[in-house]
Specification:
449 residues, alpha/beta, Rossmann fold, Helicase, Ruva Protein, domain 3, 4 domains, five-stranded parallel beta sheet, 19 helices, 49% helix
């Protein structure tokens, strides 16, 4: 129940307002002056204070100052019979949530109080959601020197507004690095907008990034805000930046250099303040040489590069990551899952073409399918067990490597057969277009292959 404190020196007005507020099932306490109100505030918590400005002794202005200093989460509505525009502006400047002139309609007061209490509920929910999001996106986990170096770089670059280019194979945690940079920056309380340049059709990319005006093209029935406007004041992650069409690269370069652009079909210039973070598994230098990526944009993005090593190059992180994922999936399953030393060794010996993402998938699968609380080698995917059994025999073709090689050859064959049309290739392979794109990225198959 909402708790409201009313400070009003006129007894008839005080009783009238208190009775009307109580009819809305709010808990209302009424006092005749600001001094008594301040004493109540010291002893208890209130969602809202409603105070007259002119009261003998400790007046409304002093009470407003007291509320802002001692109870910053409590809102206050100022009211007076001698009001002016200057009083209204002054009270709002000093931190009042609203201002109302006497005599006023009681229904008007109820509407104002309801709106303020609703906004408090929304703020509380937003805070709760932000905390949940932070729990869902923990810091990078590991104890290797390579990871320690990356965490040090994040700490250095986060407080700045410099553009960061995050490089690494698929599944190494590039998005997690970008999220960590944003969370440790001065923009942490502002939006963090992500966009995958490879997952959006080329024809929709410009509208997605920059928005469009009503009637800009067929189907544009209403004006749409772009991702840059949504991220204003915060940060934006352009994932797989290497897949951005050349035509849009020039427009992105202008945003980076001038912080302004136009919507599709628009004539007005929009100015934004957005920190750009980019990620790619593609060799951008090679793309520049091949003509598919602008040289000037590459230099503008490559201000601070962060290279994420693949998991096979930081195997000391595998046990720590495994325990973290096991804890996460144990909660989902409702029992504490463990892993045997032999199974852990299988995980350490594996090369992880899919990196940390693949390790997480392996642990999730094992935690669901393992018949007991302790995960053993036979509970892991077959290629991990086979790799362990043949370790040291001099055979360089483990089952996982052989399957990966065969899969890559089949994808290349189908792409050649369909003249590079990914939709047709995905249909022939019996997988989704997104799945095909992920496998092409995994095996470093270019769009033109």
């Amino acid at each position: 129940m909402a708790r409201i404190l009313l400070a009003e020196d006129d007894e008839i007005m005080r009783i009238t307002i208190q009775d009307r507020l109580k009819k809305n099932k709010w808990h209302v306490e009424a006092v005749p002056n600001g001094k008594e109100a301040s004493e109540r505030l010291k002893k208890g918590n209130y969602h809202l204070v409603i105070s007259d400005i002119r009261m003998p002794g400790f007046d409304g202005w002093q009470l407003l100052k007291f509320v802002r200093q001692s109870a910053p989460n409590t809102d206050i509505i100022m009211m007076t019979a001698f009001g002016s525009v200057d009083d209204a502006i002054e009270s709002l400047k000093k931190g009042a949530a609203d201002y109302i002139l006497k005599p006023f309609n009681m229904d008007d007061l109820i509407i104002r109080v309801s709106r303020i209490l609703e906004m408090q509920t929304i703020k509380a929910r937003c805070t709760s959601l932000e905390e949940s999001c932070r729990e869902m996106h923990p810091d990078m986990i590991g104890k290797s020197k390579a990871l320690a170096h990356i965490l040090g770089l994040i700490k250095q670059v986060a407080p700045t507004d410099s553009t960061v280019l995050i490089l690494g194979e698929s599944g190494t945690g590039k998005e997690l690095v970008a999220s960590s940079i944003h969370q440790q920056s001065k923009r942490a309380s502002k939006p963090f907008v992500r966009i995958n340049c490879a997952a959006i059709p080329e024809g929709l990319m410009e509208s997605e990034l920059f928005g469009h005006e009503k009637g800009a093209f067929t189907g544009a029935h209403v004006k749409k805000l772009g991702k840059f406007e949504m991220a204003d004041g915060g940060s934006m992650l352009l994932d797989e930046i290497g897949e951005m069409p050349l035509a849009l690269q020039a427009k992105l370069l202008r945003v980076l250099e001038e912080s302004m652009y136009e919507r599709v079909g628009g004539t007005g210039t929009i100015k934004v303040d957005v920190r750009i973070l980019c990620a790619t598994s593609k060799d951008l230098e090679q793309a520049v040489d091949g003509g598919s990526f602008r040289k000037d944009l590459y230099y503008r993005l490559n201000v601070i590069p962060i290279h994420l090593p693949p998991l096979r190059e930081r195997k000391e992180d595998i046990p720590v990551l495994t325990e973290h994922f096991l804890h996460e999936f144990s909660i989902n399953r409702g029992m504490k899952m463990e892993i045997s030393p032999e199974a852990m060794q299988c995980l350490i010996d594996y090369n992880y073409p899919g990196n940390v993402r693949e390790l997480k998938n392996i642990i999730e699968r094992a935690s669901v399918l393992a018949p007991e609380q302790v995960i053993k080698p036979h509970d892991l995917p077959a290629d991990l067990s086979v790799a362990k059994e043949h370790a040291g025999e001099g055979d360089t073709f483990s089952l996982s490597q052989t399957m990966a090689k065969t899969e890559k050859q089949l994808i290349l064959k189908v792409l050649a057969q369909t003249n590079g049309k990914k939709g047709e290739a995905a249909d022939l392979l019996g997988i989704s277009r997104k799945n095909l794109w992920e496998k092409m990225k995994l095996y470093n198959i270019s769009a033109g292959s």
